[in-house]
Structure formats: structure tokens, C-alpha cells
Amino acid sequence: MNLLYIGGCDALRMQIEKLLEQGSNFIQCADVPAALRHIGSVGQDTEIVVMSDLAQIDPLEALVELKKNYYSLPVIVLSENRKSSLAIEIIKAGADDFFLLPISSTELVDSMQQSVVDARLSSKPVEIGEVYSDQDTIIGKSRAMRDIYKQLGRIASQTVTVLVRGETGTGKELIARAIYQHGHRAHKGFIAVNCAAIPENLLESELFGHEKGSFTGANQLRIGRFEQAHGGTLFLDEIGDLDLSLQVKLLRVLQEKTIQRVGSSSNIPVDVRVIAATHRNLESMVSEGTFREDLFYRLNVIAIPIPPLRDRREDIPDLIHYFLQRYAKEYGLKTPSISAKAIDYLKQLEWPGNIRQVQNVISKSLLDSKGQMLDWQRFDKIIKESQELAKKQINLRQMIDYELTRAVNSETEAALPILSQQFEREVYTMAIDRAGGNQAKAARLLGVSRFTLREKLRLYGKHPKKI
Ligand SMILES: Nc1ncnc2c1ncn2[C@@H]1O[C@H](COP(=O)(O)OP(=O)(O)OP(=O)(O)O)[C@@H](O)[C@H]1O
Ligand SMILES: [Mg+2]
């Protein structure tokens, strides 16, 4: 562990230095500016800062200053000040822990180790094979996220099946990849199958493979995902969407560790670590009879529930800063500043789309910020716009659903032509409105000729004012 200590008092300094395991580094700095110079010169090597307020240091100010520069660096504050409000402020300002002096050595060691492990887990990019991706960094220091890191630490190197649960956008796939990355199978493959994205009739052969000639169209032997993942990890995403017959087969594979290709009755042993994920409520699916109880119990032995973002709002500021930096880098922009009020505004939102929604909102705000400070009004506008859009999308889906139902009931001959027309009508109508009635502009917006535009508007009974 590379520890940087800020604050005076030789006795305390020695006590902390003594606690460090062999191979650790201990650096002492007199104050925050010296600490910042040190961290700046050694890059990311400093893993934790322990700070006491014994040397005329205002711990809160010092902490804010440190976090402004290195917001993911773990900081533990030791203080003589017994006011609980200070402890709360310190934790709110992003400290990992707060201790009153004198300290108990074991408690401090535990806390230091936990903070370093959490930080390593949450900041070390999870690498998939050769690919290095910033996108796999896990952000979040809330109690809930720290419990998840601990759980990951415990289970990563086991082979047990894990079920990752959580609402949409909470980071299920990210967590699945972290389990893989931190396990002993990390040098082997990670294969992901989205059970909801593959048509039911093809999913079995996707998972288990098929023999040549086993069904029409099976012109060649196919090795399924389980066999491909042999020795490695298979991520079965949206497991709640698996149909009942495949659920039986999956259960068999998990119990017997062998698969059968479609069209063959021989058992092929496979050594695969399965990580499954779902946003569905499997318990109620079990009571409705759409998810097998035995498979549910088999999968749910080790479950990692990821809480929705609204239940861990303290992670929101970190996520905002992280995405601002990440997207600014990606778009080649300067990271804009953000007002404290904007952060408060974002913290109190419900975030039904969880972290993915934060990502979208931040990315949008950055693109229309033009380098200016991001204030809460800008976010309010973006949120309202996306809510409007969501409503429209629901309307579109309802429209499709309605027409499909009519087709099922033979009330119409075919759904698509009607739907296409309705869609086209909306598109042309919105475009001409957006262009303020200017046909040339609307045609340009849509990428069609003015002739086509006029024809369509006539067809849909819209008569433009201006030409
Ligand atoms: N804690 C986090 N820190 C940083 N990024 C995160 C975090 N959690 C999720 N993300 C990002 O949010 C996006 C959504 O995450 P992910 O795809 O893992 O969610 P999911 O739960 O699988 O969602 P869905 O149910 O919609 O498939 C991803 O781009 C992911 O990198
Ligand atoms: Mg997912």
C-alpha cells in the first residue's frame, strides 16, 4: 500500500507507519499543497491519504482541496474534534472514513485496507482480453456499492454461478465483467449471450451448438457458446427471457456440467463459469409459472442485487464528474465546470433509467454546453425533453401494438403498410412544423426532394404556407 500522511505529531505518524504491511510506502507531507505536489509528481502511485488535524490543518478544507484534484483517491481523516457535524461533513465531502483520536490500530488498518481494495476495484479498468476500455470503470462509494465490491472480492475466484439482478441501466453487465476480470479465469474468454436478443428457435443452437443436418438449414456443425467458453466465463444476459424448455436444459447443464448439441445425444463436458443477469422479478415469474423454481434456486444461490441509483444518491456526484471527464475526453472538449446547484438538482431526480440515463444526460449537456458552466436549468431542459421523447416513444409502441392486435384479429390485412404511413405522416408533419412551414428547409432536414415533400404533404392533407 502506498500511503501518504498529512499532518504533524510524531507519535501518530509512527503509529500509522508501523501499521503498514511489508513492501508498503509511507510518505509524509506537511500540508495539502505539498501533498498535491507529491501526488502530481508520482502520478497515480499514491493509493491512500491519511490526514490528521493535529498540525493546524482544517480537515474539511484540506479534504475538499484534495478531492477537487483527485476525487477518487481514498482519504481517511483522523480528528480530535468530537462534533458529529464535522464527521458528517467530512464523510459528505467524500472521505472514506473518519476516526476520532486517539485511534485503535486494528480499526484503522481494516479501514485503510478496505478503502484501498474498494478504490482498486472501482477505479481499475476491467480489461477484456486485449481490449482496454475506460468504459469498464465502476464508480460509486456508497455503502451499497462497497458491499458489492466486497461480495465481488469474495466470489470472483470461485466457479459458482452468479446471478446479477437490478433495474435497467444499473450496471449489471459491468458487474458481470468485473467478476470475470477479478477472477482466476480472467485470462480465458468472456462470452456474452443476450437471451432476449436471439429468436427462441435459434437460441438453443446458439447456446449448445448443433450437429450437421440436425434441422433444416443446419448445413454445418456448429459449436455453441457453452463449448466456446470452455475454461472461461459465459455471461447469460436477460436470463428471465429464456423460454421454459431452455430453462430445463440450462438447469441440466448447470447441474451436470455437460451439454448436448442439438441433434446429438452424446454428453460433452464443459467447464464454464456462468454469470447470469436479469432485470425481471424472477420470484413473481416463478409464481406465475413462467420461470422454473428449481432453476431460480440454482441461480439465486449467489445473487448480487444492484440497487437502483435513487437508493444510493450519494454516488450521483461521482458519476457526474466521471462521465463529464470521460465524455469531454471522448469529444475532445474541455471539461466544463458544473454548479453546486446543478449537482443538487441532479441528485434529487428519480433516474428511472439509472446510470445509463445519467450517462445520456451528461453526454447531452456536454454537447450543448459550448464550454460554459453547466447550471441546473440546462439539466432541467434536457430532462424535460427526454421525458417528452419517452412519451412519444411509448405512443409509437402503443400504435404498433394496436395495429398488430387489429391484424391478429383480422380486422386489417397487414399492419406494416398502415404503420409506415402513420409514421411517415408524423415525420413529414413534424419536419414542416420544425422548418416553420418552409418547404425547402423541411426537405433539406429530411433529405428528400421538394417535389417529394410537396407530394407527401398533399397526401397527408398538410398545406404548407411558404414555399
Ligand atoms: N457504477 C458505474 N460506474 C460507471 N459506469 C457505470 C456504472 N454502472 C453502470 N455504468 C455504465 O452504465 C451503462 C449501463 O450499464 P450496464 O449495461 O452494465 O447496465 P445493465 O444493468 O446491464 O442495463 P440493462 O438492464 O438495460 O441491460 C454502461 O455504459 C455502464 O458502463
Ligand atoms: Mg445489460
Describe this structure in words.
This protein is of the alpha/beta class. It folds into 3 domains: 2-123, Rossmann fold (3-Layer(aba) Sandwich), CATH 3.40.50.2300; 143-305, P-loop containing nucleotide triphosphate hydrolases (Rossmann fold, 3-Layer(aba) Sandwich), CATH 3.40.50.300; 309-385, Helicase, Ruva Protein, domain 3, CATH 1.10.8.60. 50% of the residues lie in helices and 12% in strands. It contains 19 helices and 14 strands. A 5-stranded parallel sheet has the order 2-1-3-4-5, sandwiched between helices. The model is unreliable at 124-133 (pLDDT under 50). Bound molecules: adenosine-5'-triphosphate and magnesium ion. Residues 135, 137-140, 166, 168-174, 279, 355-356, 359 line the site of adenosine-5'-triphosphate.
Top keywords for this entry?
binds adenosine-5'-triphosphate, Rossmann fold, binds magnesium ion, Helicase, Ruva Protein, domain 3, 12% strand, 14 strands, 467 residues, single chain, 19 helices, five-stranded parallel β-sheet, alpha/beta
Helix/strand layout:
Blueprint: E1 2-6, H1 10-19, E2 25-29, H2 32-42, E3 48-52, H3 59-69, E4 75-79, H4 84-92, E5 97-100, H5 105-123, H6 143-155, E6 162-165, H7 172-182, E7 190-194, H8 200-208, E8 209-210, E9 222-223, H9 225-228, E10 233-237, H10 244-256, E11 258-259, E12 268-269, E13 273-278, H11 282-288, H12 293-299, E14 303-305, H13 316-331, H14 340-347, H15 354-367, H16 376-408, H17 415-434, H18 439-446, H19 450-459
Parallel strand pairs: 1-2, 1-3, 3-4, 4-5, 6-13, 6-14, 7-10, 10-13
Antiparallel strand pairs: 8-9, 11-12
Helix pairs in contact: 13-15, 14-16, 15-16, 16-17, 17-18, 18-19
This protein binds adenosine-5'-triphosphate and magnesium ion.
Adenosine-5'-triphosphate is lined by residues 135, 137-140, 166, 168-174, 279, 355-356, 359.
